[in-house]
Amino acid sequence: MAAAGPVAGTDALILDRIAAAHRADRRSFLFKFALTWVALVGALGLVLGLTGNISTEFIASAGPFILGGATITIFVSITSILLAVVLAILGALGRLSASPVINGIASLYVSLVRGTPLIVQILFVYLALPQVGIVLDVVHGGILALGFNYGAYMTEIFRAGIQAVPSGQREAAQALGMKDGALMRRIVLPQAVRIVIPAIGNDFIAMIKDSALIYLLGVQELLWRASTIGRQRLASLEALLIAATIYWVLTIIFSFFQERLERRMARGDR
Amino acid sequence: MTAELGEVVVAATDIEKYFGANHVLRGVTLEVRKHETIVLIGRSGSGKTTMLRCLNFLEEPTVGTVSIGDITVHADPLRARTRAHKEQIRRLRLQAGMVFQEFNLFPHMTVLQNCIEAPTRVRGMAKAQAVELAESYLEKVRLIDKRDEYPARLSGGQKQRAAIARALTNEPKVMMFDEPTSALDPELVGEVLQVMEDLAHEGSTMVVVSHELSFCREAAARILFMEDGVIVEEGTPEAILEAPQDERTRQFLRRFTA
Ligand SMILES: Nc1ncnc2c1ncn2[C@@H]1O[C@H](COP(=O)(O)OP(=O)(O)O)[C@@H](O)[C@H]1O
Ligand SMILES: [Mg+2]
């Protein structure tokens, strides 16, 4: 905190020294914190290296191939979350609808998806749909299953977001003569989306990890590449370690951005 | 002040409103003529807000009829959800600008965007024309330099003036204010009242719920005193404030003159 008015020379000096001491404390904390992580991860690596016959040759040669799967993981996650957002907006409007039919459809969607395991839904797209003549390519199938699943969970988030928009906003729009559709599109939804953006960020990070499940379909994403090449070359330990590390780093990176976004939204000057 | 009174702009007839079993409005009839400013006063809970909200059907009256300009709507709670009734209410609302205690500006739009949203999207006004109109009203409420600010960056007084400009840009036949200064810090009340007084003196038609007696004296053609959901007494500011006839009015006013 800066001092409000002009301060006498000695006071200013003391304030400077207090601020400097705070900064030093903080630097020292961060340094020790980072050191702890490095030490723990290093120790883990050392134990594995000594006991597990880790092949650095495999890591060097297969690493880039596995890492290449991260692009597909990210692509699938982004596309799926976008599909989920669209479904969630429709689902939320449905759950808030006064029409019993529309409300019923939306509720059934949420109930069905939340009442069954994600893995069952993925296999359903992969194994069951072809039986009724619907054959999707595996990437599209994976995106469909993930988006459909997340859309149901996010329906409740969007519903809460819509309800969190103050009723005065609706009344102001009504008083101006706006129709229900325009009121929702122009006034309520834009505010609801801002409210739920941090939650979407959280779900996106969860999606990066859940997207691993579609390796079962044969989508050549991170986990598929790691498990395939690991089995081929009898180096599953190394392969899965690489995959796990990449997932971990990805979530750390996206969590960093997510937290910044969340702070910006919380400040919310618009 | 305003010499000539024009035709009737707002006519509410026998308005009754129940919230459940709570009989909040018990047959209120009022008329507002063109260029006239009326002020509703009365104790908290006497039904002033509900009456104002019934005028533009933000609350559907249980019984009664409201006309604003050439649109008339009969209260019909049983058919409240039908398309025809909703459309008729929407057309009624287009005749009335509403200013809320809590401003209710759209936070994701700039001041100017707030103002032109309804004129362009509801009235189908060309954007250039709406912008021009909005700017003239922002000029009037002395907020033109804030036209591109978001509401969160405005003071309470500025927000309320922006809300007034927003309502004006929709070109209503009557402006309605529900305690527009009671959410404001005391030092910001004056700038909002000044704008409202200017509007009254320029001949706007206004229905105001407010306990700012200075505004009543300056701007009101008539004051209506409400108690328990009925209008107990009405008259010129001098008549009501200086020589109230009804004991309940006297009792209420004692608080202010004490
Ligand atoms: N939405 C509502 N639901 C139930 N009761 C309400 C509602 N709005 C107002 N009331 C009741 O109606 C009465 C009149 O309230 P109001 O019109 O706000 O009075 P005023 O504006 O004069 O203070 C109060 O008893 C209040 O509790
Ligand atoms: Mg009130």
For this entry, give a set of tags.
heterodimer, A: 270 residues, mainly alpha, MetI-like fold, 9 helices, flat, B: 258 residues, alpha/beta, 6-stranded mixed sheet, globular, binds adenosine-5'-diphosphate
Helices and strands, with pairings:
The complex is a heterodimer of chains A (270) and B (258).
Chain A: H1 9-51, H2 56-95, H3 100-114, H4 118-128, H5 138-164, H6 167-175, H7 180-210, H8 222-232, H9 236-267
Helix pairs in contact in A: 2-3, 2-5, 2-7, 2-8, 2-9, 3-5, 4-5, 5-7, 6-7, 7-9, 8-9
Chain B: E1 8-19, E2 22-33, E3 37-42, H1 48-55, E4 63-68, E5 71-74, H2 83-93, E6 96-99, H3 111-121, H4 127-140, H5 156-169, E7 174-178, H6 186-201, E8 206-209, H7 213-219, E9 222-227, E10 230-235, H8 237-242, H9 247-257
Parallel strand pairs in B: 3-8, 3-9, 6-7, 7-8
Antiparallel strand pairs in B: 1-2, 1-4, 4-5, 9-10
Helix pairs in contact in B: 3-4, 3-5, 4-5, 5-6
The structure holds adenosine-5'-diphosphate and magnesium ion.
**Backbone CA Rg of chain B:** 18 Å
Number of helices of chain B: 9
Largest interface: A-B, 22 and 28 residues
Tell me the strand percentage band of chain A: under 5%
Order of helices and strands of chain B: EEEHEEHEHHHEHEHEEHH
Strand order of the largest sheet of chain B: 6-7-8-3-9-10
- Quote the average pLDDT of chain A: 91
Major beta sheet of chain B, specifics?
A: 6 strands, mixed
